[in-house]
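Priority: medium. Attachment 1 of 2:
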């Protein structure tokens, strides 16, 4: 074989190397790198999709939980509201029986202190609401002020029947029905002179007693009453007038009015005497709207202390006989005109009213009346009553 030159060998080797480099270019690893990049991208996209799905699932779960929580809260609120409504409705049902029970009946009975006249007697009923829209407090104050004014006008007011003992008083009071005290006082001296004791009158001849009592009117009925009560006093009470209401009203011809006259003036036990004058005036003054004597007694008694009852009766009766007449009240000469709701029903001119005062014709003692002009102010209206201001 021939010897190769060194140059040729280097050329050959050089050419061989170049051929190898040309034959195996560096581009072969590129596909692997590209494949790896594609795989990573796919993985990242898959991971992103997974995260997105997880986020969406988490959001859905949270939304579902919030909805459930909201529904639970609404349900709880509805339960609380229903419980509150049930609780609110329950007292109304319980209160229904109380509403049915008329509370007015409980308070319609006047306080025991005001209506218990004598121990052992049932209290009468009083008016709960004063007439005319006046408050209870205002009514009490006005009524007591009227009594104070009348006490100044009639400081010596007393029973106008003449008597020396309880027996004479009970007989005279029975005789005073349907007549005047003056007529009774003109009749009883002859009666008591002939029959001074219950024993004497119990044994009396009815015809003789009738003849004595004839001037008082209804003399036959009155004779029967006074003889009958005298017999009852002798047979049941040893000839003495009892000092208890329940005993007095059992006597013939004796009712509550007569009994309270006797108790208040013979025994010093407080009582209200509801005669025709008393009934007329307390309604005129709007102390009560009652018409039954027992109810008037209870209603008026509830306005005053028990200790005032007897004197109050005298004040009202005296005023009714002298100034506040049934047909022609002397309003222009009335000391309580500023306190009277009925002012103006009678004569308001002071001079004309003065002529209507009946006490001036009989000279009744113990009265302190101011001159008629003193009852009116400069404008002709009722002046403040005595003691005002």
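Attachment 2 of 2:
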């Amino acid at each position: 074989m021939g010897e190769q030159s060194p140059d040729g060998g280097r050329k050959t080797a050089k050419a061989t190397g170049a051929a190898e480099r040309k034959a195996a270019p560096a581009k072969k690893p590129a596909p692997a790198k590209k494949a790896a990049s594609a795989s990573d991208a796919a993985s990242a996209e898959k991971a992103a999709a997974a995260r997105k799905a997880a986020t969406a699932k988490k959001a859905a779960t949270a939304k579902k939980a919030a909805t459930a929580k909201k529904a639970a809260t609404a349900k709880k609120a509805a339960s609380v509201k229903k419980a509150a409504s049930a609780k609110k409705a329950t007292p109304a049902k319980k209160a229904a029986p109380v509403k049915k029970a008329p509370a007015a009946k409980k308070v319609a009975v006047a306080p025991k202190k005001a209506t218990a006249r004598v121990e052992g007697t049932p209290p009468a009923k009083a008016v709960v609401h004063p007439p005319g829209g006046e408050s209870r407090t205002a009514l009490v104050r006005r009524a007591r002020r009227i009594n104070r004014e009348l006490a100044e006008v009639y400081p010596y007011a007393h029973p106008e029947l003449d008597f020396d003992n309880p027996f004479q008083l009970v007989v005279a009071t029975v005789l005073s029905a349907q007549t005047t005290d003056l007529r009774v006082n003109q009749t009883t001296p002859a009666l008591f002179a002939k029959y001074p004791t219950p024993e004497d009158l119990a044994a009396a001849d009815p015809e003789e007693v009738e003849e004595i009592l004839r001037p008082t009117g209804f003399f036959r009925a009155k004779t029967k009453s006074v003889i009958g009560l005298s017999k009852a006093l002798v047979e049941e009470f040893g000839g003495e007038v009892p000092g208890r209401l329940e005993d007095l009203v059992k006597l013939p011809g004796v009712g509550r009015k007569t009994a309270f006259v006797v108790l208040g003036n013979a025994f010093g036990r407080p009582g209200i005497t509801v005669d025709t004058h008393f009934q007329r005036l307390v309604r005129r003054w709007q102390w009560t709207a009652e018409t039954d004597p027992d109810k008037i007694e209870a209603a008026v008694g509830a306005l005053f202390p028990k200790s005032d009852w007897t004197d109050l009766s005298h004040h009202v009766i005296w005023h009714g006989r002298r100034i506040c007449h049934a047909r022609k009240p002397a309003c222009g000469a009335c000391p309580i005109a500023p306190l009277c709701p009925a002012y103006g029903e009678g004569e308001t001119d002071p001079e004309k009213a003065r002529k209507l005062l009946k006490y001036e014709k009989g000279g009744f003692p113990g009265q302190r009346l101011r001159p008629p002009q003193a009852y009116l102010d400069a404008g002709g209206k009722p002046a403040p009553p005595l003691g005002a201001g």
